[in-house]
Amino acid sequence: MKNFTNKTRQSLTAIGLIMALGLGTGYALASPGGNHNDAIGKPGQEATVDRVIEISLDDNYFDPESIEIRSGETIKFILSNQGDGLHEFNLGTPEMHEAHQEEMAEMMESMNMDGMDHGSMMGMDHDSMGMSNMDKGNMEMGGMEHDSPNSVFVQPGEQAELIWTFGEADNLEFACNVPGHYDSGMVGAFKQAGPADAS
């Protein structure tokens, strides 16, 4: 029988978690009350990109740790996972991240209760489940897809992109909400510098 490292187990568990997320919860652009949150912004278009920012995701931190933004600015983020585990780049308010973390923890607990713990994931043939197809961090698994516009998952050694046009919210963070990562310090701040057309 094959031996698995703790990090392999964590990655397999995270993949199982993403499978659950692929069922579509719609948390990404919703406030904890369920209302659409336009203040954080909206998906941007390649043709309107004002700046390109490269971000390294590691175990468990971002480099850089903070980014200055302007309301109305469109930024293309190029995300490189330099770590050994799966990481997420998610844009939102602290309240949105907290709600998402609770949701992910509940899904993890549910998977464990259903027998989908570390051990049960190890014997699965992920290719036959459709889990090997990665496209810019949007995971497609057996017809399920995690494609929240303000969130992307990045496998170890891989790159992904996210284009975002920022709104007026001044309490935005970028974070990894894989269980335990946010609490370990994998969160960064967006610092509002004013409107994009300011000189």
From TrEMBL:
InterPro entries named among the record's database cross-references: Cu-binding_ET, Cupredoxin, EfeO_Cupredoxin
Keyword terms: Copper, Metal-binding, Signal
GO molecular function, one term: metal ion binding
Stretches that traverse the bilayer: none
Entry-linked Pfam families: Cupredoxin_1
PANTHER family to which the protein is assigned, alphabetical: AURACYANIN-B, COPPER-RESISTANT CUPROPROTEIN COPI
Keyword Metal-binding annotated: yes
Domain (EfeO-type cupredoxin-like) ranges: 46-91
UniProt protein name: Putative cupredoxin-like copper-binding protein
Organism: Aestuariispira insulae
Source taxon at top rank: Bacteria
